[in-house]
Amino acid sequence: MNEPVDAPETRYVHAGSDPRRQGGYVNPPVHHASTVLYRDVAEMDASQADPLKRGGPVYGRFGTPTSRAFEEALTELEGGHAAVVTCSGLSAITTTILAYVQAGDHILVSDSVYLPTRRFCDSLAALGVETEYYGPTADGAAVARLIRPRTRLLYIESPGSTTFEVQDIPAITAVCRAHGVATIADNTWATPAFHRPLALGAGVDAVVHSATKYLTGHADSILGAVVCTEESYPLVRGAAIRLGQCAGADDVYLGLRGLRTLDVRLARHQEQGLELARWLAGQEGVAAVLHPGLPGDPGHDLWRRDFAGAAGLFGVELDPGLGKPDIDAMLDRLRLFGLGHSYGGYESLIVPADPVSHRLPGTWAGRGPLLRVHVGFEALADLKQDLRAGFEVLLRGRAGYRVTDLSGQHT
């Protein structure tokens, strides 16, 4: 592996790549591999002595040179000890949680987590693991009051899925370390380009990614990854082996390719996302824009302290009283904003969201319908015009309705 370099822009280009061991080629080859043949029994015995070590090849499911390259690159970018690649973002989450818990344990989970994460944590009750959700604006003292003798793990997603609350990770990890509680952070939204939870305050024990999103960046791969500390790596790698976790060679290669442009793509997502968020905040029919990069957002100060930038994903709360038929008509009218799940690709997306259906009472204060918006790389003028047409449909029955045009004037 190349010697580490300091400039972030350079790391994204060269991390996990060594043309000298790749036959001189810039990109590593894609290894479609299952069986590994050994020269003799001694070599076989040596390779199987400790499957947790990142040594020579053992079997395709344990990793190939392609997956190793991606793991090494992401490890360097996150500032971790080692990484584990999985078949999806959810598998990265579930594998890491299962690495820590056993029957009788109690875990704390942010109330604003990704809904599939919540459903998985709820299912742990069948295994004798109790999940307790805490409000995503809780400070360190509030978290400390929730820790029990059997609390094993705390799971953070910051900003929160759909509602984008920012958590005080340094305060939370300090409390957890003092009580011997492990911490996991989902860093899919910010990526290591904008946020490094392993190096923030006391540091988390593991960072999970849906690499499907910004890391790959082209809406053409399903991939997950976990970046670990030296202490957490044996636990996570061991769980991945027991659960049969691995990812397809082509998906891993697409993730590695995506890392090369992550820095420039995230800068574009940030620029476009902030501009469109500001524009939306001035539109009639919008009650609030949920974006920690905007001054006045409840999480803005924490975001400025702990993050280097903002992704292109945020929430838009519409006025209370706007009903599903009007919102459906608005979404159906849009031409450039695709109606589809996921995010992080080059294309703009929009979906309705309903945090009330799965949140604790009182942790979500919004009163109006919610939309989740992902801003891609289309021209901003075109995206605004697309939304303008959607708002005309949404509010066409409202007397005296005016929409702000592209120059900021009301029409």
From TrEMBL:
Its EC number is 4.4.1.2. Pfam families: Cys_Met_Meta_PP. GO terms for molecular function: cysteine-S-conjugate beta-lyase activity; homocysteine desulfhydrase activity; methionine gamma-lyase activity; pyridoxal phosphate binding. The keyword Magnesium does not apply. Residues 8-21 have a biased composition (Basic and acidic residues). Its cofactor is pyridoxal 5'-phosphate. Belongs to the trans-sulfuration enzymes family. Residues 1-27 are annotated as: Disordered. It comes from the Bacteria. Keywords: Lyase, Pyridoxal phosphate. The keyword Lyase applies. It catalyses: L,L-cystathionine + H2O = L-homocysteine + pyruvate + NH4(+); L-methionine + H2O = methanethiol + 2-oxobutanoate + NH4(+); L-homocysteine + H2O = 2-oxobutanoate + hydrogen sulfide + NH4(+) + H(+). This is homocysteine desulfhydrase. One of its GO terms (biological process) is L-cysteine catabolic process to pyruvate. The modification N6-(pyridoxal phosphate)lysine is found at K213.
